[in-house]
Design a protein that fits this description.
The complex is a heterodimer of chains A (314) and B (423). In chain A, 35% of the residues lie in helices and 30% in strands. With 314 residues, chain A is an alpha/beta fold. In chain A, the strands form 3 sheets. Chain A has a 6-stranded mixed β-sheet with strand order 6-7-8-3-9-10, with helices on both faces. Chain A has a 4-stranded antiparallel β-sheet with strand order 2-1-4-5, covered by helices on one side. Chain A has a 4-stranded antiparallel β-sheet with strand order 12-13-11-14. In chain A, strand 1 (5-16) and strand 2 form a beta hairpin. The radius of gyration of chain A is 22 Å and the shape is elongated. The model of chain A has no long low-confidence stretch (mean pLDDT 88). Chain B is mostly helical and 423 residues long. Chain B has a 4-stranded mixed β-sheet with strand order 2-1-3-4, sandwiched between helices. In chain B, helix 3 (73-81) links the parallel strand 1 and strand 2. In chain B, helix 8 runs antiparallel to helix 14 (376-388). Mean pLDDT of chain B is 81; it is low at 41-49 and 202-226. Classes of the chains: A alpha/beta (314), B mainly alpha (423).
Chain lengths: 314, 423
């Protein structure tokens, strides 16, 4: 089961007028795995999954979900998929239970089977006690959970989650991440998009890093981190103007790449023991005070910086 | 089945929305009710006028004399005033003398005193004489004394006419060399006064001067209120049914913005089923709206909507046209921020053109009625007016057919645009 591809994406492209939002994306998601699409806003993640969910027609290429082509068998794809949209797409004037029942019906569930499954889903998302309250009266985090629940009612084999933790409190975020793991443990294949590196690292069996409509790297967390080799990631904070110092540091021997934002700089360096004194020296010459320094193991942020020359948050 | 699920969901949302309910039922009944109570008091809620009865004291001092050969004009005026047809507005009793009658008016125990002078009969019949009836009234009253004055004037005009007729006849006879009988004027006055009395009060008069019939040839039901509440309510029903039609169709735009439409498209539900379900939801809510408004208005305002088959046909035409119009209108709108101004503007303009706000005004020029037919609202109103007048199903076929054709045309345009938009 786990060696079969639940999702196969081949050279998928999408053009909006003259703008090509997705430029030949290919990847495979094995059954029962969590696969994350990681990238900054505008990288093409949502457009890619909109094509997979049959919301958008691809300009070129094809993809299969559980063996169903998005071009030739969209109904088969839709039946196999559960989609959690980025924004809460529910009816605020219906209760949580009524929402779940309605979406269950849209997948063909009826009667006792529907009621039983809605009970199970309410249990999964932890809202059994609040099932009768109108959705509009629930907190943002609770709505997010119902948003996920609506995609689970029909027991999909594959679930697509488009940035499900955007704009919610840490507690609800934790609950959602635990839900995702729990669903995966039950055998569900999860395609998860996020621009939070920590989420991708925590959840994913495999990660595809996207930027400007392309997959620029794909593999397990360990495989991706290997891309940056033995380099160290150095995070520095400066007091005052950072641009002159950043320009100077880019030219410093041993500095591989640098990203600066709001007085905070992230550098990939070959050997921090050798490079850091040079950085301090040039900062002193530029009369810029370094307020904090942190040397970290390479992570996906470092990989993105290495591959694109910019930070994931840029 | 999914179509029905979508329909049921939309109905549930509509019927739990205070705004929808208010616009669906509250507003049309409230506006019609306000008009009903604002104008109903003046013209009465039924066939009888709601005016307080005025007490009238009559002092008959008339002394006909022997020359009148039994004819007493004063007595005729008393009988005329005491006729039962006037009993709803004046209560006539006799007083013995003028002072008593004036004292009663001064003391407000009577509203009006009528003093018939001693030479009333002579003045009424003799060509060279005149007699004046005195009306003494309570200055605080207006309507009652006015009615009394009109009634007395009516009676006096009859004698004036008789005198003119007698004098003209005498002059013509004299011109032809014939000496008229001196009693001719008295006789003419008697006959003319007798005719006035019967034609003025007797409904079984041989030659009716006016006959009012409805377009179907049936007499108007006497229980219908004098205020044309039926057409006003019909106008309100048409306006608010079109409003709710557009408001229901707006849910497609709202679902698009809320993301639920996109989510629906990610389910194995066809776009045709999604649009079909939403359209059916609009149709069902309009049907419920029409049925409840008809029932409520019949109950509250005693409106008789007409034959059931006719009402059913007109309702069907209205619902189809309103649903189609709503879907088409919303298909031109890009987002929900535009819906308020567009709905308000287009529906109000169409309602005005369709004559919905002037439905209660009688005797509008024929051209105004013709102009209303450029809109579906005008055809719907025409259908309801026919139904209210008691027309049969065949007589409303034209407006109903036009409404159905318009409705399906609007629907085709609207669904075509929506399908292209969400393709």
């Amino acid at each position: 089961m786990q060696d079969q591809a639940a999702i196969q994406v081949h050279e998928l492209r999408k053009k909006f007028g003259e703008v090509e939002a997705v430029r030949g994306v290919s990847f495979e998601v094995q059954s029962g795995r969590i696969f994350s699409l990681l990238g900054p806003n505008g990288a093409g993640k949502s457009t890619t999954i909109s094509m997979l969910a049959c919301l958008l027609q691809p300009s070129q290429g094809d993809a299969c979900v559980e063996g169903h082509s998005i071009r030739n068998d969209p109904q088969g794809v839709k039946a196999a998929l559960g989609v959690v949209p980025q924004d809460i797409a529910l009816y605020p004037d219906l209760s949580a239970r009524e929402n779940l029942e309605f979406w269950g019906k849209m997948y063909g569930l009826r009667g006792a089977a529907l009621r039983q499954r809605v009970d199970e889903v309410l249990e999964i998302i932890g809202l059994t006690e609040r099932q009768k309250g109108k959705l509009g009266t629930l907190s943002g985090g609770m709505k997010r959970r119902v948003n996920i629940g609506a995609a689970l009612v029909h027991r999909p084999r594959v679930i697509i989650m488009d940035e499900p933790t955007v704009g919610i409190d840490p507690q609800s975020r934790r609950h959602i991440l635990d839900n995702v793991k729990q669903l995966n443990e039950q055998g569900m294949t999860v395609l998860y998009t996020t621009h939070y590196m920590e989420e991708a690292q925590e959840l994913s069996d495999q990660i595809a890093i996207m930027d400007q409509g392309k997959v620029i790297a794909c593999g397990t967390n360990a495989e991706l981190v290997k891309i940056v080799g033995e380099m160290d990631r150095v995070d520095l904070s400066l007091a005052g103007e950072s641009v002159p110092v950043a320009d100077c540091w880019r030219e410093t021997p041993g500095v591989h790449s640098l990203s600066a934002q709001d007085g905070h700089l992230t550098l990939l360096v070959e050997d921090s023991n050798l490079v850091l004194p040079r950085l301090f020296e040039s900062a002193a010459r530029a009369q810029t005070r370094i307020t904090s320094v942190a040397i970290q193991e390479p992570n996906l942020e470092a990989v993105f910086l290495h591959l694109t020359g910019k930070a994931l948050r840029d | 089945m999914k179509i029905l699920d979508i329909t049921f969901k939309d109905l549930k949302r509509s019927f739990t929305s205070v705004f929808s309910l208010a616009m669906m039922f509250g507003a049309p009944l409230l506006i019609t009710g306000l008009l009903y109570f604002a104008f109903g008091g003046l013209t009465g809620g039924g066939s009888k006028a709601d005016i307080p009865v005025t007490k009238v004291l009559v002092v008959n001092l008339d002394q006909p004399g022997s020359a009148s050969t039994g004819f007493a004009a004063g007595q005729m005026l008393v009988q005329f005033l005491q006729d039962k047809s006037l009993a709803d507005v004046i209560a006539v009793s006799l007083a013995s003398d003028e002072a008593t009658a004036r004292a009663a008016v001064d003391g407000q125990t009577a509203g009006v005193a009528i003093i018939i002078p001693p030479d009333f009969t002579v003045g009424a019949t003799a060509p060279d004489r005149a007699a004046a009836v005195t009306i003494y009234q309570d200055p605080t009253l207006t309507i009652g004394p006015g009615i009394v004055k009109d009634v007395v004037n009516h009676f006096m005009d009859a004698f004036s006419g008789a005198k003119i007729a007698g004098q003209t006849a005498a002059a013509q006879l004299g011109a032809h060399g014939v000496a008229p009988d001196p009693g001719l004027a008295v006789q003419a006055a008697r006959q003319y006064a007798a005719w006035v009395q019967t034609s003025g009060h007797d409904n079984t008069s041989a030659v009716p001067s006016l006959s009012i019939v409805s377009p179907t040839g049936k007499a108007q039901a006497s229980s219908q209120p004098a205020v044309p509440i039926g057409p006003i309510m019909a106008g309100m029903i048409v306006f608010f049914v079109f409003f709710i039609g557009a408001n229901g169709a707006e849910s497609i735009i709202r679902e698009d913005e809320e993301g639920t439409l996109a989510r629906l498209i990610t389910t194995p539900t066809s776009r045709a089923a999604i649009l079909g379900g939403k359209f059916l939801g609009v149709v069902v809510s309009l049907c419920l709206q029409v049925v409840l408004l008809l029932a409520a208005s019949a109950l509250l305002f005693r409106i008789q909507w007409g034959e059931p088959a006719t009402v059913l046909l007109v309702s069907f035409g209205l619902v189809v046209a309103a649903a189609g119009f709503g879907v088409m209108l919303m298909s031109f709108i890009k987002n929900s921020r535009q819906t308020g101004p567009v709905m308000g503007g287009v529906l109000t303009l169409a309602g005005m053109l369709g004559g919905l706000f002037t439905a209660g005004i009688p005797n509008l020029p024929a051209a105004a009625d013709t102009v209303t037919l450029v809109t579906p609202h005008g055809w719907a109103l025409q259908g309801w007016k026919l139904a209210l007048s008691g027309a049969g199903p065949v007589q409303v076929l034209l407006p109903v057919l036009v409404l159905l054709v318009m409705g399906f045309l609007f629907l085709t345009i609207g669904t075509g645009l929506f399908r292209r938009r969400f393709a």
